[in-house]
């Protein structure tokens, strides 16, 4: 980035404090949660390890276990990046159905407990139980930034476009911020096409990068600068938003209201689908009965 060096960005990240964001001070926020979400095996855990590597600027360590393709993260973990910033590794999704997206929204709203298994549950009662349980976690006063991680090795099919757009739009609704989009495997041939698809979905803050991995962590200036620039830009946006008066309690209430509405609508859809299936069953039974002869031979 022109005008600021990697060392300056690293210093800014390490010394970022909520108290220094605006004339209003921290406004009750304890820090920043970078809530990662996305498909299984697309690089969320690798990104966390890369962030720790470039910010600490020491030796590479595996903090978040990662695996290409197979699900490795089955729990919701928080990894401190600094005293103020935490990276949250969440269980990835596979199908983007109502059950999975409901849990993703609960993760983004910070309504799932840390270091406990994330189970795809699809009942209203289960989601409400998650919300009640989260009240005891003590993470409610964090400024939440949604970060969507997507591997460009996977082209975006037309039938998946609308599902992804809905996911990103609702992530914005629940957090108040359109997700920052991280495109991993940044040198892949699909990059231009995938980036254009996300731009059509409304994505503005997009970064393509190559994660460091356990087998590939030789320090490269470009990789370091790209990772630092991403974090720097996210925190610059947090600082910009903190200049307005905010209230973490109201933020959480709004997120809770969104989840109540989503869970209720999902429950009503399930009931409607069950009723329609039942009607269709009886309709077919009736058709079968109509085809039977009305008289019997004795």
**Low-confidence blocks of residues:** none
Give the overall silhouette: globular
Mean pLDDT: 82
Question: Architecture, CATH level 2?
Answer: 3-Layer(aba) Sandwich
Number of helices, counting only DSSP H or I runs of 4 residues or more:
8
Output the helix-strand order: HEHEEHHEHEHEHH
**Number of strand elements:** 6
Cross-sheet strand order for the largest sheet? 2-3-1-4-5-6
Largest sheet: 6 strands, mixed
First and last CA, distance: 93 Å
- The Cα radius of gyration reads 23 Å
Any idea of the CATH class?
Answer: Alpha Beta
For CATH, the homologous superfamily is named as P-loop containing nucleotide triphosphate hydrolases
The proportion of residues in beta strands is 5-15%
Helix content: 40-55%
CATH overall fold name: Rossmann fold
Overall number of domains: 1
Structural class: alpha/beta
Keywords: Coiled coil
Coiled coil: 265-292
Can you offer a commentary on this structure?
The protein is of the alpha/beta class. The chain has a single domain (6-275), classed as P-loop containing nucleotide triphosphate hydrolases (Rossmann fold, 3-Layer(aba) Sandwich), CATH 3.40.50.300. It is built from eight helices and six strands, in the order αβαββααβαβαβαα. It has helices spanning 6-14, 44-56, 98-108, 124-134, 158-175, 191-201, 221-242, 248-291, and strands at residues 31-38, 77-80, 85-89, 142-151, 180-184, 206-209. The chain has a six-stranded mixed beta sheet with strand order 2-3-1-4-5-6, sandwiched between helices. β4, α5 and β5 (180-184) form a beta-alpha-beta unit. α3 runs antiparallel to α8 and α4 (124-134) runs antiparallel to α8 (248-291). It is globular, with a radius of gyration of 23 Å. The model has no long low-confidence stretch (mean pLDDT 82).
């Amino acid at each position: 980035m022109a005008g600021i060096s990697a060392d300056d960005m690293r210093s800014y990240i390490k010394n970022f404090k909520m108290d220094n964001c605006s004339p209003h001070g921290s406004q009750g926020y304890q820090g920043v949660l970078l809530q990662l979400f996305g498909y299984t095996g697309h690089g969320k855990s690798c990104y966390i390890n890369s962030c720790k590597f470039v910010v600490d600027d020491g030796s590479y360590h595996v903090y978040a276990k990662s695996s290409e393709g197979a699900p490795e993260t089955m729990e919701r973990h928080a990894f401190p990046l600094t005293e103020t910033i935490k990276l949250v590794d969440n269980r990835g999704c596979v199908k983007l159905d109502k059950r999975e997206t409901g849990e993703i929204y609960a993760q983004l709203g910070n309504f799932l407990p840390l270091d406990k298994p994330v189970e795809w549950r699809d009942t209203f009662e289960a989601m409400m139980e998650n919300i009640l349980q989260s009240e005891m976690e003590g993470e409610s006063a964090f400024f939440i930034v949604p970060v969507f991680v997507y591997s460009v090795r996977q082209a975006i099919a037309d039938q998946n476009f609308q599902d992804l757009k809905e996911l990103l739009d609702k992530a914005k609704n629940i957090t108040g911020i359109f997700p920052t989009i991280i495109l991993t495997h940044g040198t892949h041939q699909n990059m231009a096409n995938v980036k254009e698809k996300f731009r059509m979905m409304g994505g503005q803050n997009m970064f393509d990068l190559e994660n460091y991995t356990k087998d590939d962590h030789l320090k490269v200036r470009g990789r370091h600068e790209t990772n630092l620039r991403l974090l720097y830009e996210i925190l610059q946006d947090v600082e910009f938003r903190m200049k307005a008066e905010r209230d973490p309690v109201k933020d959480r209430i709004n997120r809770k209201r969104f989840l109540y509405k989503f869970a209720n609508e999902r429950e009503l859809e399930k009931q409607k689908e069950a009723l329609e299936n039942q009607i269709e069953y009886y309709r077919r039974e009736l058709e079968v009965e109509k085809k039977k002869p009305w008289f019997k031979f004795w």
